[in-house]
Amino acid sequence: MINVDMGKNKMIFSLHTTYSRVSKMKWLMLLAGLTAVLGAVPRIPTTRDFELEETDGGYNVIAVTDSSRLLLGQIGRKVSPGDEKISLTLTEGRDAESGGYKVTITWEGPSDSVFEDCFDFGSKQWYGGPEQKEQYWPIQNSKLQKYSIISKEDDNAAVSERYWVNSNGWYIYIQPEAPLFVDYHNVLDNHICFIAEVTEPYSTKRTRNVLQYDLWFFDNAKIAHQHAVDTYLGKPSGLPDYRMIKYPVWSTWARYSREIDQQKLWEFANEINDSGFPNAQFEIDDLWEICYGSLTVDERKLPDLKQLVQDIKSLGFRVTIWVHPFVNKDCEPWYSDALAKGYFVLNEEGSPDTSWWNNNGSIPAYIDFTNPEAADWFSSRVQELIETYDIDSVKFDAGESSWSPQIPVQNGDIDLHPGHIVEAYVRTVAKFGPMIEVRSGMRTQDLPVFIRMVDKDTYWGFNNGLATLVTTLLQLNLNGYTLVLPDMIGGNGYNDKPSKELFVRWLQANVFMPTLQYSFVPWDHDEEAVEICRRYTQLHAEFADEIVAAMEQSVLTGAPVNPPIWWLDPTDQVALAVGDEFLLGERILAAPVLVEGAVSRDIYLPRGLWRDGHSGELISGPTWLTDYPAPLDILPYFTLEKLCRDFSRYIEAYQKVKRLGKRRQSVDIDGRPEVMKIFERG
């Protein structure tokens, strides 16, 4: 059965319906037997129609012009023609205010059906999808093979939204009820494929299968993304803690791992204090509990934590502590108590047994945050810990649904399992206030808290190293998570401690991100490193109000705090492909050095009049700056002075003032006298 629902006018037997739009898009819906025809091309100067053409492997989506037929993709690849158990519904919609056009595609069938719809990446740039360990951006050169779209530990996919947008202004949003997998390049070469199948990790108790998604078409990617934020993704409801924005978090994790005790913590706090570096807080990470899940301090390591906290606070710190959502089986009586009360996630066989990175020879269980009583039990114990030791806030780790015993049984709508627990966990812990941090997310973009990048490794490249710091920032922002906390400067050091060069470049890449987080310290290296780090830590603080302004704009409109550079000109084909630069709001462009041994780099500036953050020179974009000099002490960054297209008059005026040796002067711009702020520095 194929239904085509065009708003109020349901089409069952009509052979030809077209819709013309300002953006020159046309839709052709054809029905002939089991063939429905559907299509879209935005911003095409000539009339085009789209057809669904029945083939042996499904339905080809074809764009038709007077002179050509372009295959855009193929839907219904796993559907057998004539299968009366399967239904396809096509529904049209519009957004008059933004000029968008939508088609909703809905496949429904029994639980053993499989739906597979594929779209050609083409030559477009694509963004969105899951956070990845090897995070490339744009994402069309990545490879994923039937990859479950849930929040999971594998590949650092802690944030895994069902949203993709491309440089032509198309976006796809897939409804959360679909048991969704995505495939890049494997099912079909150079295609993104969406697969709905009731199989692990999705509940086998589902009685039906559904693949429903909305295809929206706009004039460009910026308009498309803003619409997606307003319609599906949401925007933050407030700001995180200001001191965390302005000054660094100092964590014990990378430096000490689990080898912490009272003396080491006190010595570390004094080291930081003596260095003269500022601080947002001192973070006590793993391992402070007597056993994992007890939330009870190990007094063999920390004989007087309450006094230690007060002593550290006397140095000017706030103190936070690391917490996770697991209870290990050897952690008694807490494990047995929670098990008896039904507070753990069980799998379909009734077992709570799972695994995490701190098994320590035991078997853990995952607290079921979809059970309100279990969530309250966890929260009350965390609150007691905070009050007993005068802790200021908490770093909440994990939260991905993959930590559940497989295949998990949760409370709530079965069609939202297993991702429902991620949202439940993050919403539970967000109640602890604006100083917290989380690392997982699923439909939680509205929360006013930092979301931390999953741990980075101490490498330079795309193997979860420095090269992925910027791409992960962009990936999270384009999924609607705009309040991003980069992980430790220099990486976690699992493979090796960071070199001086890597450490400094890592810090520089962080400067125009929302916050800084140290664990390895500048004085691990020489005095030059210390002074460079001091300067850029201060530069970050100087731009704190700019970061806050970008966050306030994100609260207001949902705009990224750190957008890609094409945000300033979404028609710029060069900017659309750049993944190693980023913006802070719409005024600062950062182009950090991300390559080992490099002392220069090529930088692309999109349209606008830019001021070099170091030399003060004015530069008119769009333009490439080839071999821009960037020795170790230089972070290339630029401030947007004016966003317009013709800067010749401004450049001439700038050169005139410079020749006069003046810092500020009235100049004539197109017959209009101006005293221009852009000349106050220089």
UniProtKB/TrEMBL annotation:
Keywords: Glycosidase, Hydrolase. Residues 558-638 form the Glycosyl hydrolase family 31 C-terminal domain. It holds the Pfam family Glyco_hydro_31_3rd. GO terms for molecular function: hydrolase activity, hydrolyzing O-glycosyl compounds. One of its GO terms (biological process) is carbohydrate metabolic process. InterPro entries: Alpha-glycosidase_related (IPR050985), GH (IPR017853), Glyco_hydro_31_C (IPR048395), Glyco_hydro_31_TIM (IPR000322), Glyco_hydro_b (IPR013780). The keyword Nuclease does not apply. The keyword Ubl conjugation does not apply. Residues 251-543 form the Glycoside hydrolase family 31 TIM barrel domain. PANTHER family: GLYCOSIDASE FAMILY 31 (PTHR43053), MYOGENESIS-REGULATING GLYCOSIDASE (PTHR43053:SF4). Belongs to the glycosyl hydrolase 31 family. This is Alpha-glucosidase.
